[in-house]
Amino acid sequence: MALGAATRLLRLLGSERRSTVASGVRDRLVRRAGARYCGGRARTVGDIIETDVPETYAMVSTKLFATLTHVLRTEEFDYLFRTNSSTYVDRRRLVEQAGTRPRTGYWGGFEGQHDGVPFTSGTGTLLSRDVVLRAVEQQWDWAAIDDVALGSALHAAGLRPEPLGRPVITGAHEVVDPGPEVFMWRCKGVDRRDDVQTMTTLHELLRSTD
Predict the structure, then answer these.
(1) Bridge partners, 168 (sequence order)
(2) Residue 138 burial by Cβ neighbours in a 10 Å radius (0-12, 13-18, 19+)
(3) Is residue 82 located within the same domain as residue 183?
(4) Structural domains in the chain (count)
(5) Residue 110 and residue 60 share a domain
(6) End of a domain among 19, 44, 75?
(7) Rounded CA gap, 202 and 173, in Å?
(8) Residue 131 sits in the same domain as residue 202
(9) Are the CB atoms for 188 and 170 separated by under 8 Å?
(10) Residues 6 or more apart in contact with residue 19 via CB below 8 angstroms
(11) Are 187 and 169 a contacting pair, CB within 8 Å?
(12) Are residues 98 and 187 in the same domain?
């Protein structure tokens, strides 16, 4: 099957509730496409990193791998923080907290488990540079979701995450500041427009205490 056809199938299979057979087909296709696209081109445009990985949910693990590889090749940094759009991050606190962590061998975030293997959720993963390098040197499972694939790679490298605080806020009425050690909040309600108001309320609270 041509890769173009595989990509089209990924979009179809990723958009519906899958049977066991469809899940197996999907995983084989994703692994094949992941191996093809993981070494593709990436470029920095302003503050955005663009890759040649197809824009489909099934390929988010490959996209993360391509992004980490690009950042290692093009940027100088001590730590990398990976987050998502439903997270509010206090950047000042993030820098302060990163400064208290080891400069090497560090992996921290809100910890979960998948099939007994630890991972840190997409809300926020903090990695020292050498750990980013170790992650992309491992064999990735392209069919796994991105945070699970990253966790599996780091687990294979013999690493274990430090649990970091991550309050979950479903609305502006729940906004609270647990203290200076917390620098990320998951803002996830029913309506994303409400999440914007939640983040705004949280931002105003935090700035009022600066």
Answers:
(1) 186
(2) middle
(3) yes
(4) 2
(5) no
(6) 75
(7) 10
(8) yes
(9) yes
(10) none
(11) yes
(12) yes
**C-beta atoms surrounding 92 within 10 Å:** 13
CB neighbours (10 Å) of residue 177? 14
Predicted confidence pLDDT, tens digits, the chain (210 residues) = 344 444 444 444 444 455 555 677 778 888 888 888 888 889 999 989 999 998 888 889 999 999 999 999 999 999 999 999 999 999 999 999 999 999 999 999 999 999 999 999 999 999 999 999 999 999 999 999 999 999 999 999 999 999 999 999 999 999 999 999 999 999 999 888 899 999 999 999 999 987
Q: Which of residues 75, 106, 123 is at a domain's end?
A: 75
Shared-domain flag, residues 100 and 164: yes
Distance CA 13, CA 164 (A): 34
The pair of three-digit structure tokens given for residue 49, joined into one six-digit string: 């990193």
**67, 100: one domain:** no
Q: What is the pLDDT of residue 54?
A: 87
At residue 19, the pLDDT reads 57
Could you tell me if 177 and 162 lie in one domain?
yes
Token pair 């647990």 in the structure block, residue = 178
Structural contact between residues 154 and 107, judged by C-beta atoms closer than 8 angstroms:
yes
Q: pTM of the prediction?
A: 0.85
What domain range is 116 assigned to? 77-210
Q: What 3-state class would DSSP assign to 49?
A: strand
Strand (E) or helix (H) holding 136? helix 129-137
pLDDT given for residue 20 in this prediction: 58
Asked if 178 contacts 89 with a C-beta cutoff of 8 angstroms, the reply is no
